[in-house]
Amino acid sequence: MLVLPLIFATTSRAAQRGVNWTLPPNMAIPVEFMHTIKADNAKAGDPIEAKTMQVVHLGQGHDLPKGSLVLGHVVMARPVHRDEIPSILAFKFDRIVTRQGVLSVRLYVRALASSIASSDASYPTPPLDMNLSETRMLIDGDQVTPSERKIYSSGNDGLDVVGENLKDGIFERLRPAMAMNEDFQVICDGTATEQSVAIYSGSACGLYGFDVTYLAHTGRRNHGIVEMGSKYYTIKLYSQSTALLEVAPDSDDSKP
Description:
Layout: H1 3-15, E1 28-33, E2 37-38, E3 47-52, E4 56-59, E5 62-64, E6 69-78, E7 87-97, E8 102-104, E9 107-113, H2 115-120, E10 136-137, E11 143-144, E12 150-155, E13 158-166, E14 169-173, E15 177-181, E16 184-188, E17 194-196, E18 206-208, E19 214-217, E20 226-230, E21 236-237, E22 242-247
Parallel strand pairs: 9-18
Antiparallel strand pairs: 1-3, 1-22, 2-21, 3-6, 4-5, 6-7, 7-8, 7-20, 9-22, 10-11, 11-12, 12-13, 13-14, 14-17, 15-16, 19-20
């Protein structure tokens, strides 16, 4: 009966301490949103909580366990208006709760998936003949089978090995990619090392499962502010939606 209070007390104590180590640029952190955010009733300053979907190896001898908190807040929220003023939901993540304390970070969104798209990538997809299959399709198409250690991606000459399915999660090198949504272009860089990706492919980039919604800013060059927009619907970011976050390079700190 004392386990839950002990966990909360430990998290609370960690949240009161700061840590002074930094994270490598472009390190990936897959998270799941813990609460629904609606652009018609959210307010600037409202807290946002997400939790890591698998272990993240932070470097410098530090790991971030699955379920660790990634915190932020709403920057702007607006419903869609009949006079063609689009709905906007802007937010930023800027803190990670670690065992050692709170780490101040500037994170940006590489890929963002709706709760439905995230659920689809979390469970095996039956083949067309409806035979039982263990294979899961990660967001943007990479394939993982629990009984195999390798992650595959469809290439020109068949299946290419692009990552590893390990005991503490799925790890891939991030691959350069580009996504278009409305008039906005999302450009995603690659990495030289394998990153924690959870339900995402290394090529995932942009929005997944959001109808007539665009990603105006990823947060990389907008002071960490992620901005979603829609000309037709009031944006609702439901709990269990997910994001593949990355650590913003220091050189981008002051860029718009």
